[in-house]
Amino acid sequence: MTTAAPASPPSTVRQLSGYGASGEFILSLLVKRTYRLLPDGRCVLAPEQLPLVEEPVFDPELPGVMLDDMDLYAYKPLSDVVVDGHAYAEKPSGAFPAGLSIGKVLKKLALFGPRRCQPSRAGLRFSPPEPVAKVALLSKHAYGGHDAAAEAKYGNHLAELAPYLREMDLRLASPYVYPRNPAGKGFVIDGATEALETVSLPLIEDPDDLLTPARLICGAPARWAAMPLPWSPGWTDLAVFPRSAYFGAVPEMDPETLPLPEVRRGFIPPTLVRGGHLFESFDLRAANGASFGLQLPYVKPETDIVLIGLHPTARKLQFRLPAEQPSLWIDGRNGKLVKTEPVLHTLRLFPDRGLFTVTWCGSGPALRPYLPEELEKMPFKVAW
């Protein structure tokens, strides 16, 4: 839970009341900074400073797709690194690589043009990908989706509840929706002819875990855990696994598919689910919404970043995060300000726009939770 003072107009600074790693009361100060990223790798302060995002932004047409997460989290246990933009081929191509590194962490991307599944007597095959110059880094282009053919064939018992739950969107509750990415491409349950003839294949994949004709058919709804991880470098929706599991919602899964690949690869803690059932009811990791591989131990100033195939003009763009880090003081009550140790909550990269933003958070103990009207009057200090 986070309580924030109202801000009008939108601001780059906000003091919040919330809870820390051990459930203790904390007071946090958020500061957002926007930089221009020049084609030669230099970073300079942007003339227009983007405000803190106050509410998540969801795609109105695609359930389970978060376009932007809010900044107003009093505590994040890790840094989120998120990319908003495109992957670019050196020349139009059916398949090409891209990726980014943050310090020693590397996330590789395999990009494809549109492909189809082609059933034949000899088995399944994928058509050659059509040449493309760029691919938008959106979750709808990663692995996932909804097997509408299987749902029409077997029926969805949850649909019977729709008349009684008109204020709820039950589309994400269908067992024929891929829990990790409901808006993606390629999720096929049982290989019905209609599903194979109409399925679109992902444009963004993990080059170390590609979808192949041999693994296209999932086999049963509960076997979703054995399928590829969605690999777009944007946000993970609050209602999508594994983020939903930190709130206490874990989809049914076949125990034979365990351990989960995200557990094996260190993306989520092994205690999040055990034996396919909920283990923890709530975890503050719910505040972290970056994609697999981009929720990192707190990123430091002057960290080296390399963008490969993610900039519209530079095939490889290397830069270093600015050395500057804010000094942040929160209200310690009794007329005193308390200095904090800031950590980097969120790094948003907008290569197409030549921008990136860094959101810092400084936290300290609080006597109790504070109401928005109290926070509005409480002093704080920011120095660069």
Key features of this structure:
eight-stranded mixed β-sheet; 5 helices; globular; 384 residues; mainly beta; five-stranded antiparallel β-sheet
Short structural description:
By secondary structure, the chain is mainly β. The chain contains five helices and 26 strands.
Please, could you describe this protein's structure?
- The strands form 8 sheets. Strands 1, 2, 3, 4, 7, 19, 24 and 25 form an 8-stranded mixed sheet that branches.
- The longest helix is centred in the middle third of the chain and has 7 residues.
- By secondary structure, this protein is mostly beta strands.
- 7% of the residues lie in helices and 33% in strands.
- Strand 1 and strand 2 form a beta hairpin.
- It contains 5 helices and 26 strands.
- It has a domain of 147 residues.
- It is globular and about 80 Å long.
Helix % is: under 10%
Q: Major beta sheet, specifics?
A: 8 strands, mixed
Q: Identify the overall geometry.
A: globular
Helix/strand-derived category reads mainly beta
Per DSSP E runs of 2 or more residues, the count of β-strands stands at 26
Helical stretch count?
5
Low-confidence stretches: none
Rounded Rg? 22 Å
Alpha-carbon distance between the two ends: 29 Å
Overall residue-averaged pLDDT value:
92
Quaternary structure state of the chains depicted:
single chain
Fraction in beta strands = 25-35%
